[in-house]
Design a protein that fits this description.
single chain; 11% strand; alpha/beta; seven-stranded parallel β-sheet; flat; 1032 residues
Length: 1032
């Protein structure tokens, strides 16, 4: 039924395109009219559009006219030579109809899926120009700094011609440079740069001058699927030096290095014994030693080479499953104890064995063993022979020993991981005496990123470079949550349709597939399915060799760096020259991509590598005539009335040949790889090679296909291929996609909790930063704290005394329990009025603070008050981030207690956040009388406190040291600025904060007016903004 409806009314995508086509015709007509204008008249359209917007017209009203102006500007620029990244480029681009459709989709805040080579960069100029007319800024997001600078320069030619300013955010820019770039109408940059600037503005700036961004109005994200799906959960973290940093990595490195060398030698000997046992047919002996090597050195080269044989891989899987059974756990532990350390390959964790502890320190094997602190403390508490002081000292000693050993063992474990799991030029590179992480998907460097939990320091110690201090998180946000800040968000990519549900659910963005300008002439071959990976890799090498001999360029896509290395090694054995796009060759990426389309070029790269760059074919790669390429001929059309174009390409291969070494778990990634060939009507070919040992097939799709292979009696080396099998594999991919989407959606629910809290904190903080005078914000906080504390008040003496103690420990007003405000209760009995008491306390605090401020330096007072508030927010927020990380890591265990971890997380996060806000406010309130712009002003204030206390309470005079403090204060006011502060001044401060007053209770004789209540004078303003401004 659904199929019939689609045939009648079309798909949603077809209906969307149908609505946009009439506007394309209108844009063409308007552009023809603009051709009669002079250059100055065309440029004047920008000012005209802005005036019309100011008069009430909308961007939608101007869209067709603005697009026509951009198209006409591109036409006039044809032939202009532009210097782009040191290379002269001649402008020869004018948006065609399908690009106009793409521009309209982007303006509507949707995702435009456009094939490789269809000019997404040019398409973006249309909506960017239109939305930049508002003056609120447009952000264009690219995948790396190179593309940001290239596109800003290249496309900036159009913007600047039409009178707009263009900026580009690059790494290592100073704040003032960034502010200037954001002030432009259009700003290019990477997702990381935009996100980090947001964190610095919201979480670290102390004044409006330090902020660089000016809002989140409209953004277009290039390669939107990569940024908003693949990297969506990547946290952007701004770190600062931790208050404490260990030196254990440098101290234990020599011992760890010696031990790793001994383990490597041991595993090499075990591998030789494995080979001997296999040659003798003793599989039982071989598999136990194989198990030991896999536990001790999972990346051992001999082990990896041996596991290329299917029977050996099955042997290892059998022994690993055997060791998971309870009855074999003791045997597994005994086998591991013969090693120096054990590595869990799945979690990349490492742990010392008893043998390793002895090797690290033969004189003291317990040197690397964590003591049983709980038992030791319990034994200490039960020891009646020790005094309390001795127990206290012993407890401190035990705790320090536990901390030292834990730190030492953690450093050893991380160093073992660094030496045994993480390889240079694979997971990281060393540049300029720094360890730089390599992206596992793209092979690109990620400067500024650091591994957590001390791993980065361990790798720095391994490589002998400078070990950076350990860091703590100062501010963090995921890329996903950052882009949800924008009022309007759009994206463009070559593949997004398969993730349309996720884009709609998380970002509220529809996906529209834009038709190509010329027909796609790519011949997609059926997947070739083999039983084992070894057969598959051999078939790939044979295919590449055949292409090399006929001078057809090949792009081999892999899903991991390891697979790239295996294929590269096999090609070297076959004497086939090739390039590998990975961390070792990251500096040659542009050169490798530029040469990938030349005759006979063989390029191996991960599926994600080189995104954002087109592979252009060299001379002689295509046998088709140029007129044929430019024509509307499709693959199904017959050429010269004989064979179809598909048949001709299959008989005589041409164009770039894309080979997939394995099906990715996401159809989108496979489509991206296929899309690297057949750009702009060029012919091309693609094929995937699959084995039943691939992760996707082994976990989700191999049962049915392996059954077919066995029924057909296929032998080693024989291949199975059919279009129905392609569908079976895609069904397996859909299952994985659904599972991954469910996981990401569940994760988003956790992130939403933190995101809402971040909005509250950053909103509160930005108000403080943006305010010219922060006094009102400060007093509002103090009032909230006082009212919150007074809510706990009752008629009990202990409650009244506790309130007085709290007030006097924070504010120098000498509050006494008898000064609480009371009103008439039932039966004429007086009761405490908590609200009135809080207001009375606040008025006295405000007056005392006004007196203190009158003595401060007026030029620095506002900065001091801003610092008090921001420092309290930042300090408490950083501690809160650590607590939330701990909660997130452990909340999953609640499921064992039949409780939903998400519900538990939300409940505890709410409690923690409420406590956070209380602590922030309490810290601010507690600091206002303990901070000063100068010591001299502070001493003067303390002297005045003495005078106030002496005048009000004669019995406090002995506590404040007679009149010395007041004399000192008078001397300072009389010009004795160089006099030393009298010790009695501090006593006055202590007395004013700690002593209780004997003044009479305050009795209200009129209705209470709160600071936030409407002013009784009838002005309509709040009391604190009107008559209450100077009250108190």
């Amino acid at each position: 039924m659904q199929w019939i409806l689609k045939r009648i009314i079309g798909t949603k995508n077809e209906r969307d395109l149908k609505k946009l086509r009439p506007m394309v015709a209108r844009i063409r007509a308007l552009e023809e009219q603009l051709q009669g204008l002079s250059d100055e008249e065309l440029k004047g359209k920008t000012g005209e559009f802005r005036e019309r917007l100011a008069k009430g017209e909308t961007l939608d009203d101007l869209m067709c006219e603005a697009f026509a102006v951009v198209k006409n500007a591109c036409r006039r620029l044809c032939g202009t030579v532009v210097d782009v990244m040191g290379h002269p480029q001649t402008w020869d681009m004018v948006p065609f109809d399908t690009q106009l459709i793409g521009g309209m989709v982007l303006h509507q805040g949707r995702i435009a899926e456009m094939a490789t080579g269809e000019g997404k960069t040019l398409v973006a100029t249309l909506p960017v120009y239109l939305n930049a007319l508002t003056g609120r800024g447009v952000h264009v997001v690219t995948v790396n700094d190179y593309l940001a600078k290239r596109d800003a320069t290249w496309m900036g030619t159009v913007y600047q011609y039409l009178g707009l300013t263009v900026g580009c955010i690059q790494n290592q820019m100073r704040p003032e440079e960034r502010r200037a770039q954001y002030a432009c109408d259009i700003t290019y940059g990477t997702n990381s740069e935009f996100g980090f600037d947001y964190l610095r503005d919201m979480g670290m700036a102390y004044s409006p001058e330090e902020m660089v961004q000016r809002g989140w109005n409209y953004a277009i994200v290039d390669e939107v699927d990569s940024i908003l799906i693949d990297e969506a959960r990547t946290p952007l973290i701004i770190s600062g030096p931790a208050p404490y940093s260990t030196e254990q990595y440098q101290l234990v490195r020599p011992a760890v290095e010696r031990m790793v060398r001994r383990q490597r030698d041991l595993c090499t000997r075990l591998m030789n014994e494995v080979k001997t046992a296999l040659e003798e047919g003793d599989e039982d002996a071989a598999m136990f030693k194989l198990y030991q090597v896999s536990q001790g050195m999972p990346k051992n080269k001999q082990l990896l080479h041996l596991l290329e044989e299917p029977q050996h891989r099955r042997l290892l899987e059998r022994v690993q499953n055997m060791m998971l059974v309870d009855m074999n756990k003791e045997q597994a532990r005994a086998l591991r104890e013969e090693l120096f350390f054990v590595i869990d390959e799945k979690s990349n964790d490492a742990s010392l064995t008893d043998k390793g502890c002895n090797a690290m320190n033969p004189e003291d094997p317990d040197y690397y063993v964590v003591p049983d602190l709980v038992s030791a403390l319990a034994e200490l508490d039960g020891d009646d022979t020790m005094s309390d002081q001795q127990k206290f000292e012993r407890r401190q000693e035990l705790q320090n020993q536990f901390a030292d050993k834990s730190e030492r063992i953690h450093a050893v474990d991380q160093l073992i991981r660094a030496y045994s799991v993480y390889e240079r030029d694979v997971q990281y590179v060393v540049q300029d005496n720094q360890v730089v992480i390599v992206d596992e998907y793209t092979g690109r460097l990620m400067p500024g990123r650091r591994w957590s939990d001390g791993l980065h320091q361990a790798i720095e110690a391994k490589e002998g470079v400078r070990i950076e201090r350990e860091t703590q998180t100062l501010a963090t946000i995921t890329i996903q949550n950052y882009f949800r800040l924008y009022k309007k968000l759009a994206g463009m990519t070559g593949t997004a349709e398969t993730e349309a549900d996720e884009f709609a659910s998380i970002y509220k963005m529809d996906v529209v597939v834009i038709p190509t300008n010329r027909p796609v002439r790519r011949v997609d071959g059926n997947d070739q399915i083999y039983k084992t990976q070894r057969e598959k890799f051999n078939a790939i090498i044979e295919e590449i060799t055949a292409c090399y001999q006929r001078k057809q360029p090949v792009l081999v896509g892999t899903i991991s760096v390891d697979t790239s290395e295996i294929l590269s090694r096999m090609l070297r054995r076959a004497n086939v020259p090739h390039n590998v796009l990975n961390a070792k060759n990251h500096q040659r990426e542009a050169e490798i991509v530029a040469n990938a389309g030349q005759p006979g070029a063989i390029t191996i790269a991960t599926n994600m590598a080189g995104r954002g760059t087109d592979i252009k074919l060299g001379e002689g790669v295509i046998w088709m005539e140029r007129e044929q390429v430019m024509s509307p001929v499709k693959l199904t059309d017959k050429v010269d009335g004989k064979k179809t174009l598909r048949q001709l390409i299959e008989e005589r291969p041409t164009g770039l040949y894309v080979i997939g070494s394995e099906r990715h778990e996401s159809r989108r990634i496979d489509r991206q790889l296929r899309g690297r060939c057949a750009r702009q009507g060029d012919p091309g070919m693609s094929r995937f090679f699959v084995s039943l040992e691939d992760d996707l097939m082994r976990l989700f799709g191999s049962d049915r296909i392996s059954g077919i292979m066995e029924k057909l009696g296929l032998q080693e080396g024989e291949v199975l291929e059919h279009r129905w099998l392609n569908r079976s594999i895609e069904t397996a991919q859909r299952r994985v996609e659904q599972q991954n989407f469910a996981i990401r959606k569940r994760t988003l629910e956790y992130d939403d909790v933190m995101n809402k809290q971040r909005e509250i904190i950053y909103g509160f903080r930005s108000q403080i930063v943006a305010a010219e005078q922060v006094r009102e914000h400060l007093l509002d906080v103090v009032q909230d704290v006082i009212y919150g504390r007074a809510e706990e008040l009752d008629d009990e003496e202990d409650s009244l005394a506790a309130l007085a103690t709290w007030v006097n420990s924070n504010f120098p007003i000498g509050f006494h329990p008898k000064q609480v405000v009371r009103d008439e209760g039932r039966r004429g009995r007086q009761r405490v009025d908590a609200a009135a008491t809080a207001q009375a306390i606040f008025e006295r605090v405000r007056k005392a603070y006004a007196d203190k401020c009158s003595l401060e330096d007026p030029t620095q007072l506002n900065s001091m008050e801003r610092f008090i508030m921001l420092n309290a927010v930042d300090t408490q927020w950083q501690e809160y981030l650590r607590n939330m990380d701990t909660l997130r890591q452990g909340v999953g265990l609640r499921a064992y207690g039949q409780r939903d971890p998400l519900v538990e997380y939300k409940n505890e996060a709410y409690t923690l956040f409420a406590d956070l806000m209380d602590r922030i406010k309490a810290e601010i309130a507690g600091r206002i009388f303990r901070a000063t712009t100068s010591p001299r002003a502070y001493q003067t204030f303390l002297g005045d406190l003495h005078q106030m206390a002496k005048a009000q309470h004669a019995d406090m005079a002995p506590l404040v040291g007679g009149g010395a403090a007041s004399a000192a204060a008078a001397g300072r006011r009389g010009g004795g600025g160089g006099a030393a502060a009298d010790p009695g001044a501090q006593a006055a401060m202590d007395a004013a904060l700690a002593a209780a007053s004997r003044a009479q209770p305050v009795v209200r004789d009129a209705p209470k007016v709160g600071r936030n209540d409407p002013c009784p004078c009838g002005s309509g303003k709040k009391y604190k903004k009107c008559c209450g401004r100077d009250a108190g």
